[in-house]
Amino acid sequence: MRPGTDIVGEDEKNGIDERLAALGFTRGQALAWAAVALLVLLVGGHYLRGQWGGGAGEASRAVTIAVAGQGETLAPGSAAEEGGTGNSEGQPAVIAVHVAGSVAAPGLYELSRGARAAEAIERAGGALPAADLDRVNLAARLEDGQQLFVPAKGQPAPALPAGTGAGGDGNGGEKIDLNTAGIDELEQLDGVGEKTARKIIAYREEHGGFRSIEELMQVPGIGPAKFAAIRDSVRV
Known about the structure:
By secondary structure, this protein is α/β, with parallel strands linked by helices. The protein is built from 6 helices and 5 strands.
């Protein structure tokens, strides 16, 4: 072949140009589209290779975690995989609660965070036959350091001991928990008698507990004036 001789003959070039023209393309446009297609194939192949390789790595990590956790598969990057035992706010995963009163085995118990009063009573061996469970909000969520007292029928509820996790009312006393207090405790509030105490208990049982102390004003018979008198003596 002589230098400068085209590999594709002139007649073949003309034929290619005619076919491209029939499709509405020039030779330059066809070459440009071919280059774009090649680039797309190269980029796509690189992306798929990375996805397949990365997916295999993640799957391997999941299997490793499953073996270490005795069958519990954890998502990569989860708190459990990183060795954490608390929630996203840094709180411990378990709480300590003192269960006292009319239960089979009063004492200190560790429960999962967010546990309810009914779970604590069950851990303490269950309520005794004399227990007055109507005065206990079994659905109330417990807090770390809290005391849960289960009164016997006819037994007045004791004053809350210091160190139960409740905040003080500013006068050296302990605030009354609206979600666990019985009738006797609620009657200790200024201006609250047995009738109003029963309304408070009925409201929390109907609504699954109080979410804020301001919700007290939704209880019939408790207006702004009475709420102002007792707001510093209660908590949720």
